[in-house]
Amino acid sequence: METGETGRETAPEGARSGSPVLAVALYVGARLVLVAVIAGVLVLVGLPLLVALIVAIVLALPLSLVLFRPLRARVNAELAAATATRREQRERLRAELRGDAPAE
User: Which of 15, 29, 53, 74 lies 20 to 30 Å from 103, alpha-carbon distance?
Assistant: First the structure.
């Protein structure tokens, strides 16, 4: 645990922010639902389940690129923010280890 400016302990960055994980889970879940819906329709039409699943997976890829563009943008933004935070923390730690910055 880190100690914040107010003297209280704060959670580590990974534990404090679950939004990248939530964004990825939401996107993956949406894609799985799309595959399930397409496969369900194809099974109702009369295709065997395995063939329907294969066709659904192939069709879901381009459809998800179009239908879930906002979810993909959210995932990209969340991952970029998490990466920037980790990079900043790493640089701050390296500066402290070199003695360039006072410890906070």
Answer: 15
